[in-house]
Amino acid sequence: MVVVSLERPARDATPSPLFKKRVLFFIGKGGVGKTTIATALALASAKLGKKTLLIEFDGNTRAARLLGLPPLEEPADVPRQVSPTLFVLSTTGQAALDEYLRLILPLKRLLRVVTESRVYQYFVAAAPGLKELLTMGKVWYEERKRDAETQQPRWDILIVDMPATGHSLQYLRMPYAARDTFGAGLVQRESERILALFRDPEKTAVNLVALPEELPVNETQEAYRQLTEDLDLPLGVLFINSVHQCPLPQAALARAQIDARASTQDQRLAEQILASARTEATLAEAQAPYLQQLQQLRLPTIQVPFYFAEQFGLSEVEQIAQAIGATPARKERGKGVKGKRRVGRKA
After folding, report:
1. How many other CB atoms are there within 10 angstroms of residue 67's CB atom?
2. What count of other Cβ atoms lies within 10 Å of the Cβ of residue 336?
3. Which of 232, 176, 243 is nearest to 209 (CA)?
4. 88 SS3 class
5. What is the bridge-based pairing of β-strands 80-83 and 86-90?
6. What is the DSSP secondary structure assignment for residue 10, as one 8-state letter?
7. pLDDT digits 0-9 by tens, 102-157
8. Complete DSSP assignment for 206-271
9. Distances (CA, A) of 207 to 247, 262, 264, 295, 337
10. What is the mean pLDDT of the chain?
11. 218 or 92: whose pLDDT is higher?
12. pLDDT, tens digit, 9 for 90 and up, residues 282-299
């Protein structure tokens, strides 16, 4: 278990409404800081005392590394503990299928014969969409899991760090495809159960993460369209990451002058501060039109400030968790819909 700070938020801080959900998906273009935001929300949730499971797909372990967990020597399909209330699971479709077979084939010898057979390996590799469907089924299974003694839910909240946008939409679309493709039977029933959870606005929210830049904005707009029009899934919050902020416009900073009567040391310090402020104002103004485009989406938004760190790790994630864990989402156009390194840049 990794030791992390579990100081509770200040008494006057109001937890985000997102923490009232059971399943939170996070999707976004590669490099926008999706994993960073998901990990920070998981930390914030755990600090509220919620039993939190952070799930990574496709064997990705970036979130686990951010939280200080050591590298895995071999793939594992069980959650790893970060703190008393926070666990991380790196899952794959292969692991989900193996777990399912263990449930229905209790005999280890028979299980080994099946999973090690060439036919089984070929089937897993070749069946279109099977891994995606089983991975989403794993999310459903973890949400349903109960404590053996108390029969209470094993997890209060599941935070799912999805792959890059295109692949994420394939994952979210797969239960629909399986339900519509297969006739009455096991696959259709399981798909319906998965969809019932994912489409429940009381339990689930799909959250978008973007940067105020051209390509991430375009991809976010298209993802929003598909999620609302094609998939009809409940949306949560739009996180706009790495936002530059400056209280003064460029014009005001351009007119600013340094007092010639100040000491040489003070003048040099003022020059450095003024140069940094002008740079920040330039970046903020460059981001402004993209922020406006993102705020056209009918989604509550949370702006995550640009962070700078020599080396990005757990302490930086904790700063972001503290910043956004109790930040109320700004409702730009409505209440949301159903359906040297930059901290947080890399997903």
Report:
1. 23
2. 20
3. 243
4. strand
5. antiparallel
6. P
7. 554 454 554 455 455 554 454 445 455 677 887 888 899 899 999 888 889 999 99
8. EEEEE-SSHHHHHHHHHHHHIIIIIS-PPEEEEEEEEE---SS-HHHHHH----TTS-HHHHHHHH
9. 28, 50, 50, 14, 11
10. 81
11. 218
12. 899 999 999 999 999 999
Name the residue among 13, 43, 17 with its Cα closest to residue 326: 13
What confidence score (pLDDT) does residue 86 get?
96
Radius of gyration (C-alpha) of the chain in whole angstroms: 23
Whole-number Å distance between alpha carbons of 186 and 192? 10
- For the cut 50, the answer to whether the pLDDT of residue 347 exceeds it is no
For residue 329, the one-letter residue type is A
Q: Are 320 and 241 in contact (CB under 8 A)?
A: no
Q: Is 329 helix (H, G, I), strand (E, B) or coil?
A: coil
Please enumerate in sequence order all residues whose Cβ is within 8 A of that of 317, keeping only pairs 6 or more positions apart, or say none.
36, 39, 40, 43, 66, 67
Top-confidence residue, 215 or 256: 215
Q: What is the pLDDT of residue 218?
A: 97
Sign of the CA dihedral running 218, 221, 227, 232: negative
Cβ contact 43:8 at 8 Å: no
Confidence tier at 226 by pLDDT (50, 70, 90): very high
Q: How far is CA 303 from CA 211, 286, 327, in A?
A: 10, 16, 9
DSSP category for residue 19: G
Task: Looking at mean pLDDT, say which of 122-126, 180-184, 191-195 comes out highest.
Answer: 191-195
State which H helix or E strand residue 286 sits in: helix 264-294
Do strands 300-305 and 157-164 pair parallel, antiparallel, or not at all (unpaired)? unpaired
| Token code pair at residue 340 | 């040297």
Rounded to 5 degrees, φ, ψ at 301 are -125, 150
Distance CA 224, CA 237 (A): 11
DSSP 164: E
Predicted model pTM: 0.82
Give, as one character, the DSSP assignment of residue 156: S
Q: C-alpha angle with apex 101: 99 to 106, nearest 5 degrees?
A: 105
Q: What confidence tier does 3 reach under pLDDT thresholds 50, 70, 90? A: very low
